[in-house]
């Protein structure tokens, strides 16, 4: 359109700063938990001024959401066009299991952020990220021979992978992430074999 301003590409130094800041935030979360992620701490860890963090993300919430968005984009790219078994070409059951394990790993890796961001609030299920995840799971279930709308089944398959469930399984039940993944896979295999 002639009257619309041109979208300028991100400058190289801005892109570098964004990568540094996201890596610093992720490192802080991994070592100290989401509560340790302050704008000051991220700036120090990334070796930039605090103003750079504010200019890039606006506030702490913007930073946390950008970190989630980055990880979610990587996961979506992997299941849409990445290598097997997560990406196209593998058998539907192999893809579903690979997807569930990848989704669980992302949930565990970002658990504090997801819980803090309220990712398991009722409106979370309408969010485009969760809608895409549900569509992907429904597609794989259909390829496995499940018939009908599959909305309830797709949500039921994903429920153990949600942050609030994972937190409960880790902290209350006392399971490890690998135990959760193995139990989830067993559930999916039983569901598919009994269908």
Along the chain, the helix and strand elements come as HHHHHHHHHH
What helical percentage do the residues reach?
55-70%
Task: Tell me the number of strands.
Answer: 0
> What is the name of the CATH topology of the largest domain?
Tetracycline Repressor, domain 2
User: Which CATH first-tier class of the largest domain would you pick?
Assistant: Mainly Alpha
**Assembly type:** single chain
Distance between the termini: 52 Å
Percentage beta strand: under 5%
Q: What's the helix count?
A: 10
Indicate the CATH architecture of the largest domain. Answer: Orthogonal Bundle
For the sheet with most strands, the description reads: none
Structural class: mainly alpha
Throw out a few tags for this protein.
single chain, 195 residues, mainly alpha, Arc Repressor Mutant, subunit A, Tetracycline Repressor, domain 2, 2 domains, 0% strand, elongated
In brief, what are we looking at here?
The chain is an all-alpha fold and 195 residues long. 70% of the residues lie in helices and 0% in strands.
């Amino acid at each position: 359109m002639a009257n619309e301003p041109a979208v300028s590409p991100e400058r190289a130094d801005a892109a570098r700063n964004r990568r540094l800041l996201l890596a610093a935030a992720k490192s802080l979360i991994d070592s100290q938990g989401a509560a340790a992620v302050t704008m000051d701490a991220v700036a120090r860890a990334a070796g930039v001024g605090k103003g750079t963090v504010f200019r890039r993300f606006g506030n702490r919430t913007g930073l946390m959401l950008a970190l989630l968005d980055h990880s979610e984009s990587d996961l979506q790219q992997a299941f849409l066009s990445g290598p097997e078994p997560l990406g196209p070409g593998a058998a539907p059951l192999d893809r579903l299991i690979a997807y569930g394990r990848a989704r669980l790993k992302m949930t565990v890796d970002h658990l504090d952020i997801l819980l803090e961001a309220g990712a398991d609030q009722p409106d979370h299920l309408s969010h485009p990220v969760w809608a895409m995840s549900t569509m992907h799971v429904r597609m794989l279930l259909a390829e496995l021979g499940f018939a009908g709308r599959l909305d309830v089944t797709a949500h039921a398959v994903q429920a153990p992978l949600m942050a609030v469930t994972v937190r409960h399984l880790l902290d209350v039940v006392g399971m490890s992430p690998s135990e959760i993944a193995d139990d989830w896979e067993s559930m999916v295999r039983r569901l598919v074999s009994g269908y």
